[in-house]
Amino acid sequence: MERESRSPARSQDLRFLKMHGLGNDFVVLDTRASGEAVTPGLARALGDRNRGVGFDQLAVIRAGGAGSVRVDFWNADGSAADACGNATRCVARLLMAESGEKSCELETGRGRLLARDAGHGLIAVNMGAPQLTWDTVPLAREMDLDALPIEGDPGAAGMGNPHCVFVVPDAEAVDLAAIGPGIEHHSLFPKRTNVEFVQVIDRETIRMRVWERGGMITLACGSGACAAVVVTARRGLTGRKVTVRLDGGELFVDWRDDGVWMTGPTALVFEGRLSAEFLAALR
Hints:
Distance between the termini: 15 Å
CATH class of the largest domain: Alpha Beta
CATH superfamily of the largest domain: Diaminopimelate Epimerase, Chain A, domain 1
Oligomer: single chain
Number of domains: 2
CATH topology of the largest domain: Diaminopimelate Epimerase, Chain A, domain 1
Helix content: 10-25%
Strand content: 35-45%
C-alpha cells in the first residue's frame, strides 16, 4: 500500500484553537505562517476524541490568492468538505478580531463567503445560494429534489455539501444513530450526505436534529440548518426567515436573494500545542 505523503517540514510546535458554535466543535489550525500541509492522516488523528483532540470538523486557515484568506474543512474521518457553516463563523470571528474590521471574506470550496459581526456576540455568514439541481447537490441521477425516492419522502439541497432533509412529526423521537448511517451512505448520494430531521413548530420556527456526514451525531450543523430552511420553505411549510432549534441552541437562518444567511454565537474554548510525540507518530 502506498504511504500517505507527509510534510517534510512539519512543525514540532503545531498550535491550534478549540472553538464551537452551539456545541458543534472545531479544531482550528492557522497555517498562514508555517505553510503546514494537512493530510487526511493528520485530520483523522486530530479528530480522534480518545487519542487526539476531537472535533466535528477541522478548519485550516491558509493563505489564499492575492493576499486573501483560504479556509479548508476536514471531517473527523479524514475526508474533505467544501463547506461548514458554524466553523466558517468561528474562523470569521478570529479574522475580524485580527483585523479590527466588522466584516471579512473567506475563500472556501463553496466559494467566497462574506461574514459579518452581527453584534451581541453573534456572527453572521452568507453561505451562498442553495444548490437546487440534482447534479449540484449532488445526486446520482436526475429526480425531484422535493420528494426523493426514499422512505419518508425527504428533500435535498446542497450548501457546498449535500443534505437530505426529512420532515417528521417529532424530531425527538428519531433514532439518529440507527437511521443516519444508512441515509448517509444511500446510493442516491455519490458523495454521501448529511441527514437532517426537522419538526415544523410554526412558519418561523423549526426543531432540527442532525446526523453529519463522516459518521456522527452533532449538537448543531450550520449548513444543515440552512438546507433545512430551504427545503421547508420550498414546500411552503415555513417562510424564509426561520429560527432553527438545535440540540446545542438556536441559529437564525434568512434565505435572501443574495444567499442563505446564517447567524449565531461562537465560543473560543482553549488553545493548545500538539506535541512532538503526537506528530512523530504520524510519520
